[in-house]
Amino acid sequence: MKRFLFSLVTLNLSLLTGMAQTGYPITPVPFTSVKVTPGTFWGQRLEASRNTTIPLAFSKCESEGRYKNFENAAAHLKDPSKTFKVNGVGYSFDDTDPYKTLEGAAYILQTYPDKKLEAYCDSVIDIIATAQEPDGYLYTARTQNPADPHHWAGDRRWVKEEDLSHELYNLGHMIEGAVAYWQATGKRKFLDIACRYADVACKEVGPNPGQMCVVPGHQIAEMAMARLYLATGQQRYLDFAKFLLDYRGKTTIKTEYSQSHLPVIRQNEAVGHAVRAAYMYAGMADVAALTGDKGYIDAIDRIWDNIVSKKLYITGGIGATSNGEAFGKNYELPNMSAYCETCAAIGNVYVNYRLFLLHGDSKYYDVLERTLYNGLISGVSLQGDGFFYPNPLESMGQHQRQAWFGCACCPSNICRFIPSLPGYVYAVKDKDVYVNLFLSNKSELSVGKKKVTLSQQTNYPWDGDITIHVDKTNAGQFAMKIRIPGWLKGKVVPSDLYTYTDGKRLGYTVSVNGKAYYPENRDYITIDRKWKKGDKVQIHFDMEPRIVRANNKVEADRGMVAIERGPLVYCAEHPDNQFDIFSALINQEPQFQLGKAEIAGTPVVTLTTDAQTLDFNKQGKLTTKDQKLTLIPYYAWCHRGSGKMRVWLPQDLKATTPAQPATLASESKVTTGSRVPALSSINDRLVPRDENDRSVPYTHWWPKKASTEWLAYEFPSAATVQSCTVYWFDDAPWGGCRVPKSWRILYQDEQGQWKPVEGADGYPTARGTACTVNFNPVKTKSLRLEVTQPDDFSSGLFEWIVK
Q1: Domain CATH code at residue 705
Q2: Domain shared by 531 and 554, yes or no
Q3: What tens digit of pLDDT does each residue of 228-279 get?
Q4: Quick one: which of 68, 190, 503, 671 could link to 178 by a disulfide (CB 3.0–4.6 Å)?
């Protein structure tokens, strides 16, 4: 029965996607047909996902009350007198954590059958089923307490969908997980739950009288509904997906944040929340492929061009600012404050993958590969048990991997993406076989309805040698199309946003059965021949360290360079360099030596080059010192403790930041009354340019509000002080921090008692600028900064200077 159901799905997919006028003209080879070799670069990642990440995510669903939400909702449905507090508790999208983890588990089950894991998944689905209302609606943020639901939910269904209720977002992730689980196991229970909820949405949301005419506040339902249509053949699901896109920009809320400022076909620029945007663009591609709507395709093409030419980080990350987790302005790509959410990187892969299936151009895979090897896998530790939410390109030590987050979208998203990775390696169109990614694997493809078995051996991304074996074939003649990576062709990205500046011209060689093959120099190495069992293709890509500069319009990167090798972006990190990497200056003609190291038990290739550090000595004189600068792959940073990290390194003097001489504050021990992040930021001698500068570190007391907090300096020895300057952090209007209600300075007397300083001339509270208080000189061993926070917000600061 299982085999029959899976075959039915495969047939349905092939019928729908094989029609050029309505579906993707290129057919992906499903991940279930690609077995990644254990112990390799990606084999290790898949094992970590299977053995660590997914079990961890399920355990967090238990410990963080995700399952309890469903159980509480079920209890209320059984006995309406039982209600549970949800107003002000958790998030309205907490239901999606189990859905996404189930999706990842489904992908794992298709690759590694596991009866114990499948039984656990079945038990989770049983819990979910109990929370479904009689008509099919399933949203625990309301059902647990309909009279007093979650504060983002609204007083009735869908009324706050365009704002923060996330009802359709929850539905979207439910569908993605349910279809995946059905395909993996043949069991319909979760799929039936999703169909019933989808039917409620189709009935109650729409443009007709009696319906709520709303579109998702957070997109994903669009591509999920397209997937549900493919799985079931029910036209209403595709129609609903198209409605959600067609009515965007035409309903009540019109804002760039959720890409509802204009109808989708009139949009030209990537704006607003980056994850929402990427999911919407992916949904537009899916619906366009299934309906033939050229307006959608034209709009996505315009937006894609805007991203890759003006808004893409060198790591493939998207989303420049924490203000709204959003795209910035054109060329606004700060490094330390880069948001680059892990979920946005996954969304970027989704978009570029779909655009390749639409257009067949290798440039989309160039962006996909860059994102995959850098800005995406940086979001999960090599062991699979630590996560980044943002993925900055620079750190003073304020960033660290977390075991989980209260808003757990990124860890659970990683759960579902990594196991699906094998499905991105190959694709087929008629008698063309695309080899788009390079990783050791064994695969089974259908070419012209004939079976072809290929195997690939490579140590990529550490070297550029790839061997492809034809293990079996009944397909006769077909064209094997092997992607020539953009980095090999001298294109960092498919635009002028980044450029190689070292003058190198890398090449490649190809042989078939040991005989040299000379293909036309295009985006793909195309070998069109009658293949037979035992044929072997060997490819060598030159792989050398490359020097990259950003377009001069990117202010944050002027005078700086980044270093790449193959698909990997490199960074300098504190454990490998016993000096301040922020004071390092790269040579004008750098030479690199390759090395080997282990990080978190996995091998990496390192790069070492000569550099200089610039420092001010105690007399204020600028000095230089020769150094050996070691670089590691960006994805591997922050596995050896928090500290300084940098991707973009100064090569021009104007871009340098010489190490500052020590100050009384920088040599002091910092203590605090409560745990705060990035405590070292307050005496790192870095101050913001203005109130909106997020390129320097800061600390804060969020989410605490209306409290009195303190920080203290313990001086190396007693010192006379008479002035303090504070730079306050305030992330209005989006964030939760504001300047304090009040503050004061206290000193510790000889008896150890804290006393306010005398003669203070005022305690200013301006945003992001020097707020100085002068007071009567006092000799002390310790000084305290006491902060009274606003009633409804937290406070924070960049720097506290003492003189």
Answers
A1: 2.60.120.260
A2: no
A3: 999 999 999 999 999 999 999 999 999 999 999 999 999 999 999 999 999 9
A4: 190
Residue 198 identity: A
The span from the CA of 572 to the CA of 6, in Å, is: 47
Which strand (E) or helix (H) includes residue 602? strand 602-616
Work out the average pLDDT over 655-661.
85
> Structure tokens of 349?
């892969």
Q: What is the mean pLDDT of residues 472-483?
A: 96
Name the percent of the chain lying above pLDDT 70: 97
Same domain, 59 and 125: yes
Return the axis-axis angle of helices 54-63 and 66-78, rounded to nearest 10°. 50
365: helix, coil or strand?
helix
Q: What is the pTM of this model?
A: 0.90
Cis bond upstream, residue 703 (ω within 30): yes
Domain count, the chain: 5
pLDDT 10s digits, 138-178: 999 999 999 999 999 999 999 999 999 999 999 999 999 99
Question: Known catalytic residues?
Answer: 325, 409
Report the 10 Å Cβ neighbour count for 356.
25
Single residue among 487, 522, 545 that ends a domain in this structure: 545
Supply φ then ψ for residue 699, to 5 degrees: -120, 165
Same domain (yes/no): 107, 139: yes
Q: Which domain holds residue 324?
A: 290-392+408-418
The CA-based dihedral angle spanning residues 70, 72, 77, 81, taken in that order and rounded to the nearest 10 degrees: -170
Question: Quick check: 758 pLDDT over 60?
Answer: yes
